[in-house]
Amino acid sequence: MRKPKGLPPKPGTKVPKAPTHLDTVERALWRSLTSAHRFDDASSLVLLRTALEAHMRARRCREAIDDEGEAIRDRFGQIKPHPLLPAERDARSGFLHAMKILGLDLTGG
To answer: Which end of the chain, N or C, is less surrounded by CB atoms within 10 Å?
Structure first.
């Protein structure tokens, strides 16, 4: 797989449309990334789609946690960490890992 490494798309190259199952936020990221970077093969586009799916899951988990609180009470009234915290963490990690593989490392490292 060839990494984009900040290369712009080749002149005249059609920017691939965002997958329709992505939410508005992730479709905007897709458009921004595919307009600014070169993705030379299908596998890099599949990885970008997977990264944005992970981003979407992490964002949705974060929104639910923000609405419901980081701690919830179980059926016995005991305070427990929100059950979506691990899903958010794993999805965020998957997003960052995929972006790093694509050469679009967002962590600054």
So the answer is: C
Tell me what pLDDT residue 39 has.
86
- Angle formed by the axes of helices 42-68 and 24-36, nearest 10°: 140
E-strand ranges in 25-69 read: none
How many other C-beta atoms can be found within 10 angstroms of the C-beta atom of residue 98?
Answer: 20
Which residue, among 56, 64, 49, has the nearest Cα to 19 in the 3D structure?
49
CA distances from 13 to 29, 34, 38 (A): 18, 10, 9
| Sign of the four-CA dihedral 27, 29, 34, 39 | negative
Scan for tokens 């915290």, then name that residue.
85
Tell me the whole-structure pTM to 2 decimals.
Answer: 0.84
